[in-house]
Structure formats: C-alpha cells, structure tokens
Design a protein that fits this description.
single chain; mainly alpha
C-alpha cells in the first residue's frame, strides 16, 4: 500500500489535472460557475425552510439548519459514489492507451466533490454566523471529521468503480443503495425519533449516523443544546472501524481487479 501511495504522489499532477477537469465539466456553460457551490446550500435551506414552515418538523427548531448540517456531508458521500461508479468505464480511452495508477480516476471524482463540499461549508458558515450560531466553538473538530469521512468516501468509490467494470448493473444498483443509506441515516429526522431497539443498529452499522451526529453537534446544537451530546467513545471507535474496513476492502478489491480493466472495457 505504501508503494502505491508513493506512486500516486508521483502522478499527483495527473490527479490534479483530472480533478480540475471534473470541476470544469460540472460547471461548463454555467454563468455563475463555482458560485453554485456557495448558492446550493443557501437555496436548499430556503426551500426547506419554506416547505417545513407548512409541514410538521417533528418539533425540531429551525429545521432547515438541522437538516443541512447532516445533508451536506452525506451529499459529499453520495455524489462521489454515484459519479465515481462509472469513472473507469467513462475514461476507457485513457485506460487503454497510457499507463497510470487507475485509482486516480475515481479519486479525481472524490477530490472534485471534496472541493465542492468545502465551498458549501463556507456558505454554511456564513448563514450560521448570520443566524447567531456559535459554530466556531467546536470548529477544531471539523478537519478531523472531514479527514476520517474522506476514507469512507474513497473506500466506497474505489469499490463500486472497480466492480462496475465487471458488473454494469452496479451503476443502477448503487442509486438504490445510496437512497436506502440516506433514509437509514438520521438526516431528515433526529435519531430520537427512531425506536430505541433500532438505534444501536443505526449507530454501530452505519458510520454516517455517527458522523451526522458530530456535524450537528458542531453546527446546530451549539444554539439548541436540548438534543446535544457528542457520540460516545465506543460509538466513535465503531464508526472509525467500519470506515477503515470499507476503505481497505475498497482498496484491495480495486487493486485486485485493476490489471483486468483494460480487457473488460
């Protein structure tokens, strides 16, 4: 693995170039370009504020903020996995013509979505500051949280991008999987609404449950501490363990199948 990391570093210019390409393609023909990364979370909050001012919010104050704090990190995962699934196949011309570490292709998708996510967080900071949230109190936790989640995103993206080369149904199945994962994560509802007998299942099988809780404690519960409380050490270690497991499975599956990519596509 360390040899592969060293090799990736030597191809860093290609990774940067492909990441830039992904960002440019996403906003090609757009007048506002990268500003959409700032506008999207703001517009999303406005929409949800309007919708949930009419519908029930389950007793959650300022539901739009409650939602967006967990929605943005999940979108980082979801967009990376969904777009990364076809990254090897869609770049078959590169795979067949030149040699480079193939993991650069799905990694470029992850990094481009990471850049978008960071822009979205900047927009969120502005909104939170305007609305009187003292999110800066726990902001020192945020870089560590993003770093850990990054390994979950990379692992999932490597896994599905490799499998999709041999089983093209993956690209259709993954959309359903991510939808189930979304509703299985306390994003549009607080964990307290889940029956107690199911809460351990969400906490110890789904690492995004723990990460969503961290994001909400950093951003939302500083203003509404009624439901505050960072995950326990056991829950955090379990989430970290599953994250690393997914990362290593994704990495080893990708490297195991990598040599057959050219002949399959």
């Amino acid at each position: 693995m360390f040899a592969d990391i060293k090799k990736l570093f030597s191809y860093r210019e290609l990774l940067v170039s492909l990441t830039r390409k992904e960002l440019k393609v996403k906003y090609r023909g757009s007048v506002l370009g990268f500003f959409w990364s700032l506008l999207n979370p703001v517009l999303t909050m406005l929409v949800y504020s309007f919708v949930f001012s009419i519908l029930s919010r389950g007793g959650v104050k300022e539901f739009a903020i409650f939602l967006i704090c967990a929605l943005l990190p999940f979108n980082f995962l979801s967009n990376s996995v969904n777009y990364g699934t076809g990254s090897i196949i869609s770049n078959s011309n590169l795979v067949n013509k030149i040699y480079f570490p193939r993991e650069i292709l799905p990694l470029s998708i992850v990094f481009s979505n990471l850049v978008n996510y960071l822009f979205e967080l900047v927009a969120l900071f502005i909104v939170l500051a305007f609305m009187g949230y003292k999110f800066y109190l726990f902001l020192y936790i945020l870089p560590v949280l993003i770093f850990i989640q990054f390994f979950l995103v990379v692992g999932m993206t490597l896994l599905v991008s490799a499998l999709n080369v041999f089983f093209r149904d993956i690209q259709h199945l993954i959309t359903i999987v991510m939808m189930v994962w979304f509703f299985g994560t306390p994003i549009i509802y607080p964990l307290s609404m889940v029956p107690e007998r199911f809460q351990p299942l969400l906490k110890f099988i789904n690492p995004m449950t723990i990460y969503a809780a961290y994001y909400r404690n950093i951003f939302y519960y500083v203003k509404y501490p009624e439901g505050a409380g960072f995950p326990s050490a056991v829950e955090t270690i379990a989430a970290l363990g599953i994250t690393l497991l997914i990362f290593f499975i994704g990495y080893f599956v990708f490297k195991k199948l990598e040599y057959r990519f050219a002949e399959e596509i």
